[in-house]
Every structure is written in C-alpha cells, then in structure tokens.
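Input sequence (209 aa), recorded before submission:
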Amino acid sequence: MEATIKPHDKGTKQLFQNPFIEKLTRTHIGVPVSIFVIYSGALLYWSFTHTSLSVGVSSAMFVAGFVVFTWVEYQVHRHIFHMGTYTKWREKTQYLIHGVHHDYPKDKDRLAMPPLASVTIGTVLLLLFRLIMGDFAFSFMPGFMIGYAFYLLIHYMVHAHQPPKNIFKWLWVNHSVHHYKDGKAVFGVTSPLWDFLYGTTASLPKVKD
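Predicted structure, token format:
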C-alpha cells in the first residue's frame, strides 16, 4: 500500500547529493509551459504546411488530443504517481516521482516535471502517435501538449495561490481534498470528469461560495 504522508506547510527536500542531478529535479513553472506552447505551435505549423489535413480535421484532432490528455493525466496520477509501495524499490520510486510533492506540496520548484524529462517523454509520444496515426499526429499532439501545459498552470496556481472567490474555487477544493484529506481519491487536476466516471469522487466536499 502507498505510504501515508503528512504534508509540510513549507520547505523543500533534497533528493540527490549530486548538485547537478538535484538541480535537474527542479524547474520554474514558466520553463516547461513555454516549451510545450512553442512545441505545440511548431507542430501545428507543420500540420498546416506539410500535410493535407483540413482546418476542420486539424481542429477536431487538436480537441481530441486535449481530451485524451485529461484521461492520461488521471490514469498516470492514479496508477503511476500513486502506485502501491509494497516493495522498497516501488516505495523509493513513488517518492521520487510524486511522494516528495505530497511531502512538500508548496515547494514551487517541484510543481512540474523537469523540462528534460517532459521533452523526452513528449518526443517519444510524438513518434509513437506518428507511427499509429500518421499525419493526424501533428494536430493531435499539440492538443495533448497544450492539455499538459494547461494542467501545469492549474497545478501551479492551486498550490501557489489562494483560491479565488468564484466558480473556479472548486479546482482548489478538489486538489486540497487529494492532498490533505484523501490521497486515494480526486486524481483529476484539470477536470473532475474522470473522477466521476471512475468513481473516485467519494471524498469531495461541497464548495461554498
């Protein structure tokens, strides 16, 4: 079972003794967001100039990529970031990739996957989608990447800023439940859709304006 972590209100955690490797585990939120917006723009430009896809088809694939990302976000968060820690290796791995975030949820330098890892995974996914989908990948992948950039921004805001006094307050409430009340529920950050469909919303409280 996954270990229970009591969050620290402030501070950070050193993961590696090597200062270079330690630095690679940290990033300012603006770096990966900028990278993926530019990456997505370049892929869309390629789609419009080097494929025969119409604007309508490209737009539909972009939206499909965005929606698929929200599903992938849910699945990765639930089954990989919160993997069972019934061996020492799994316990250490889970802590490195996500447990440290639950330990220090207000550490702004660890609210996003480091750029090197993000770009590597993104490029591998692009090659995989290209193999499976052909030219459709050049408009599908931008939607997927913008979905990730959107996730990064929301995740940063809910940890770094106070909740607003409007309808978007539910984003802060949802994620706070996951961090401070029930780490086995409310895995969606950008959307509650998949929590509803997979039945992981049991711990959600009512949001008061």
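Checked by second reader. DSSP finds eight helices and no strands in the chain.
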